[in-house]
Every structure is written in C-alpha cells, then in structure tokens.
Amino acid sequence: MQVKVLSARFDIPDAHKIEVAKEHGAYATLDKVFAMQPEEVIELVKASGLRGRGGAGFPTGLKWSFLPKNIDKPVYLAVNSDESEPATFKDRYILVRDPHMLIEGIIICCYAIKSHAAYIYIRGEYTTQVKALQAAIDEAYAAGYLGDTIAGKDYKLDVTVHRGAGAYVCGEETALLESIEGRKGQPRSKPPFPAVEGLYGCPTIINNVQSIASLPFILANGSDAYKAYGTEKSPGTHLFGISGLVKKPGMYELPLGLPLLEVIDKVAGGVRDGRKLKGVIPGGSSTPVLTPEEAQTVTLDYESMAAHKTMFGSGGIVVLDDTVDMVKLVENLIYFYHHESCGQCTPCREGLGWMLKIVKKIIRGEGTIADIDLLTELCDNIEMKTVCVLSAACTMSTRSYLNKFRHEFEAYVNGGASAQTAM
Question: Ranges for the NADH-ubiquinone oxidoreductase 51kDa subunit iron-sulphur binding domain (predicted)?
C-alpha cells in the first residue's frame, strides 16, 4: 500500500547530505531538464496531473502557464514552507530528510518559469528544519548546482531562505509575499493574482514544498509513471500525516484514491485501545469532520472529499475515538483561528472571538439552545466575508461539528456536562 516516490531517500542514512543524495539519484534530472525548452517542462508537468499539495489542489503546470508572456520584469518562485495547519507535518520530513530533492525541484520549476530567484518561506518555529535546509543549500552552491551556473549550464539561480515569525496566516500566499517584502503578514485583495503581480510587483509562482519536491520524479520517469499512481483526476502520491487516537501514528506516503478507513486500519493500525471510531478529520484542522458512516465511503482524493462536503486539504488525517469531547475540540479549534487572525477583516477579528466566548459559555454550563443556533448563524455570516479564507477555515469545520454532533452541544446546555459524562 505504501509507495516510495517522495520518500525514496527518507530512510537512507545521511541522505540530507549532498554526497549521499547524489549517490541515490539527486540532481540526475538536470541534464534532461536543460535539454528541454521551458515550455516543454511545463507541458510535462501538466501531463503528469500534479496538483498543488498545499491544500487547494490546483493543477501545478496550469498555474505556471498563467505567467504573462514576453515581460520585462523578473519572475520569482516562492516556495511555501510555512506549514502551520494543525495536524500537518509532511513538509518538515522533506526539509530534514531529503532537502536536496526540494532544491532539485526548485531548479526544475525555475527553469520552466524562467525565474532566476527563488525564496523558500519557512515557518519560524522550524529551527531544526531551517538548519538542515540552509546546510543543503550551501552544499548545492558549493557543488555548482546553485549560483551563476547550474551543473555547468548557462543558467543563473539564487535561492534564499526567508524565516517567518510564526503567523498561521502567512501560509496564505499573498500574506506570505507581504512578509517576504518586510511588511506585516496580511493577505492582499485579489486580483491582481500573484502570477501577474506578486513579489515586488513582479510575476510570481507560489507552490508548496511537496509540490516542488514531486518534480524530480516526474522529470526522471515521465508523466505516465507519475499517473500510474492515484486516480485519473487525482494522480500521484501524497505524504499523509496520520495522527490522533490510532495505534501507529506517523508519516506515510500513499497513492491517492485509497479508501480512508482501509488506510486507518491497515496502515495506522486502527483505533487504539479497542475504542470505537467517532470521527475523522481528513485533511488538517480546517477540513469538515467526517462521521464513521461517511468515512466508510470516502477515498483519499480530491473528488471523493468534495463529494462528501469536506476537503482533502493538506493530508493531515486525525482519528477521533469515542472518548473525544467534540465541544471542547471545537473550543480548541476556534481558539487557534481566533488567535491567528491577522485582524484585518472585522468578521474574522470580531466574529471568531464572539464564537469562542459562546463555546466557553456552553462548556461552563451557562449556554442555551439559542447559543448553539447563534454559533451556526455566525458561521454563515462570517464565512467568505473576508479577504482570505482563514475565517472560513474555522467556520467550515465548526459548522460540521455543530451539524453532526449537535447532541453533544445540547448535552452541555441541558445538563451542564459533556456528552461523555452524560453517557
């Protein structure tokens, strides 16, 4: 069930070092890449069906093709390594265990989009990952894979690591750009979109770490080899971070399209301690929760998730058993999003704080049925009324708990106790 595309070198000792990585194939695609025209590289990535692995799932090659033609401005690549979504920890594996795969992918992307400068925006708390990444970049410069020439080719490329200050909202692409430019990390209104006017007012492509790291395999093996994994509309593999109340939490590379419950049972060992499955968060904290009944028919791909009115997200699967208090889970969730609001938009800044106060009131046993209804109403009035989707990340998931586990909220109202205590 598990595959080795992105994770092929993860378990090789010292694979983060350039000499070991090269022994196992790192930078082997560069002669092929530079023998192609940039447009041919874009078409190859399009043909592979690679979709953005940051959560949105937008076709990667298609995004590249949005860049304006025949412009006299520089083109930038911004690699999003902010990875702030709770329950998401896939990118840090790449940064520590195989950073040269990412650097090779950056070279491929930059050549395809005719960029000579790339920025890796990395979460400020990722101190270990920053050290590993910067060391790999220094090695790549010393070996001639970055700088004025790349592997002896007449192509200049510089890569800069930019550390964030720990703001979740900077995972949003335009807030990321604002932060790199030295301003407060607040999302921009769109249009213009970054591909037209991004970093320093120039055309910019923003891709997730895992998206860029997938490129060496595609260049080395071809689009058909990549499409051999996954489904027709969701091809390839994905790094799934499975956490929560399972026997074997961890990071697993799997082809897309596998049944969700089969992965939980066979890969993660099933729900721990013989408890019953109560729910599954399928793609990080912002994705609507699935009930056990819904999970029975979900497969791990973008289309199946959408059909079940949730999202594939970042691939961070959280397994919840029957000991979990869903009301307190929602309290924790809203607290996070309220705390991480940049404050730019009133519905987010004020509305999420209002929601948090209501949930705390319910947990104290002072709430009413009207308060539960008000939470739903606030979700409806906040969602998509802001510049970015941070507030929607909170309201979409909160609404799913209100709809599917309303009885637990009512248990607090009616008895002043959690659903577990009432059972």
Answer: 327-372
Number of domains in the chain: 3
Q: Are 227 and 236 in contact (CB under 8 A)?
A: yes
Whole-number Å distance between alpha carbons of 211 and 169:
20
CA 129/CA 135 separation, integer angstroms: 10
Strands in 124-264 per DSSP E: 158-163, 204-208, 237-244, 250-255
Q: Is residue 353 part of a domain?
A: yes
Query: Do 280 and 248 sit in the same domain of this protein?
Result: yes
**Structure tokens, 370:** 């009207």
Length of the chain measured in residues: 423
For residues 150 and 26, membership in a common domain is answered with yes
| C-alpha–C-alpha distance, residues 325 and 341, integer Å | 25
Tell me what the mean pLDDT of segment 51-63 comes to: 90
DSSP 16-41: TSHHHHHHTTTTTTHHHHHTS-HHHH
Residues 98 and 160 in one domain: yes
Distance CA 52, CA 205 (A): 12
Do residues 98 and 249 make contact, with C-beta atoms less than 8 angstroms apart?
no
Give the pLDDT confidence of 171-196 residue by residue, as tens digits: 999 999 999 999 999 999 999 999 99
Q: Do residues 102 and 126 make contact, with C-beta atoms less than 8 angstroms apart?
A: no
Residues 23 and 155 in one domain: yes
Exposure string (b/e) for 241-262, b if CB count within 10 Å is 16 or more? bbbbbbeebebbbbbbbbbbbe
